[in-house]
Amino acid sequence: MYELVAEPERCPTSLGGILRHGSRFGGPAKGRLLRTPIFLTAFLIAGLLVQGPGVGSAVVPVQGVQILTTIDYVNVSATEQTLFTPSQVAVTPGDLVRLTITQLADFNHTFTLSPLANFTFTSSNTSADLSAFFHAHPPLVNLSLGSVPGKKSYANFTAPPKGSYEFVCLENGHFRQGMHGELLSGVAAPANVVTPITTLDVTIAGAIALGLAVGILAVVKMRRRVPPAPPTQPPT
Ligand SMILES: [Cu+2]
C-alpha cells in the first residue's frame, strides 16, 4: 500500500542523489565519484560553447561567445581644420572593423577609404581627381558626415589584407588642405586605437567557466562529507 510513496534513495534527482546513486551506472566506487564532477564540468563547458547570444547571459557575457571573430574598434574625428584625427589607425587583416567617425565641424566632410594597398594620392590631386579614382576603384568605406557637430557615422567592414590604405575627404579642396590619413592593416602601427576586445572576452568566459567548475567540484566534495540522510520510513 506504500507503493506511491517516493523513496529518495531511488530518485536521484538532486546532486546529492546522483552522487549517492553513482553505483546504478556500475563500476567501482572511486570511479563513479570521479565521473560525476567531470561530467558536470564537461556539460557546463559545452553549454558555454554552444549557447547563442542572450542565452544564459546572466552567467556569461554575450561577448564571451564571439570566439572566432576579433573586433577592432576604430574611432576617427573630422575636424573644423579639415583634418582627420588621428590620421593613422591600425587594424589586423581579417578582423571585423567597427568604425566610428565623429563630425566636429559644421560643414560636410566625407570619410572615403581607398581599396588599394600601398597606394597614396599625390598632394596636387584635386577633388575631381579623387572622385575619378574612386569611380574606377570603389571605396571600402564612403561616409558623408553631414554638417552637425557631434554627429557620429558608422561603418563595419573586414580589415583588408596587409598593407596601408589611404582615406581622404572628397569635399572640395579638403584633401589638398591635408585631410587624409592611413588605415594600417597588419603593418607597423602607432600605439593607439586598436582594441581587440573579443580576445579578452574569451579569456573572461574561460575564467568564469573555470571558476564555476572549481565551485562545482568544491560543492561535490562538501556533499560527499555529509552523511546520506536516513531513508524515509513509511508511516505505520
Ligand atoms: Cu573634409
Please explain how this structure is put together.
The chain starts with 14 loop residues before the first helix and ends in an 11-residue tail after the last helix. The protein has 236 residues and is α+β, with helices and mostly antiparallel strands. 28% of the residues lie in helices and 21% in strands. It has a domain at 71-195: Cupredoxins -  blue copper proteins (Immunoglobulin-like, Sandwich), CATH 2.60.40.420. The strands form two sheets. The chain has a five-stranded mixed sheet, with no helix packed on it. A four-stranded mixed sheet has the order 2-1-4-7, with no helix packed on it. Residues 1-34, 38-62 and 194-201 have low confidence and may be disordered. Bound molecules: copper (II) ion (CU). Copper (II) ion is lined by residues 82, 109, 169, 171, 174, 179.
Q: What's this, in brief?
A:
The protein is α+β, with helices and mostly antiparallel strands and 236 residues long.
Which terms summarize this structure?
single chain; disordered N terminus; Immunoglobulin-like; binds copper (II) ion; alpha+beta; four-stranded mixed beta sheet; five-stranded mixed beta sheet; 236 residues
Order of helices and strands: HHEEEEEHEEEEH
Low-confidence stretches: 1-34, 38-62, 194-201
Output mean pLDDT.
Answer: 73
Q: What topology, given as strand order, has the largest sheet?
A: 3-9-8-5-6
The secondary-structure class comes to alpha+beta
What is the CATH T-level topology of the domain at 71-195?
Answer: Immunoglobulin-like
Provide the gyration radius in Å.
Answer: 30 Å
Oligomer: single chain
The major beta sheet can be summarized as: 5 strands, mixed
List ligands, each type once.
copper (II) ion
* CATH level 4 superfamily of the domain at 71-195: Cupredoxins -  blue copper proteins
* Annotation field: number of helices: 4
Range of strand content: 15-25%
The CATH architecture designation of the domain at 71-195 is Sandwich
Terminal residue distance? 11 Å
Q: How would you sum up the global shape?
A: elongated
Count of extended strands: 9
Q: What is the CATH level 1 assignment of the domain at 71-195?
A: Mainly Beta
Name the helicity range: 25-40%
